[in-house]
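One such given next:
>
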Amino acid sequence: MQKPTANSLPEIQLEVGDIHTLSLANAFSGKFIQQGYTLNRFDPMHISVTSTDRNDIYRITALKPGTTMFKIIATNPAGRTPLEVDVSIT
């Protein structure tokens, strides 16, 4: 088994106050990601990121104009793989 592979995601473009729902259904390739996803640090001045009841859906709320990014890490028995998510806020 190989560790997950991160697929590229387009930059998320939001206006202050917008909420974006991010599904990780196609964000990673590989098997057995049932061990889940981990949200890495994000800039709380620009965005809020929260997970939903489903482990593969996150909500991003735009708080302040600017650009920022955060990482989501997929894990399986073979290892961990980060995916950078870029966010631009106007």
Notes: The two ends are 42 Å apart (CA to CA). The chain has a mean pLDDT of 89. Strands lie at 5-6, 12-14, 19-23, 28-29, 37-39, 47-51, 57-62, 66-76, 79-89. The longest strand covers residues 66-76.
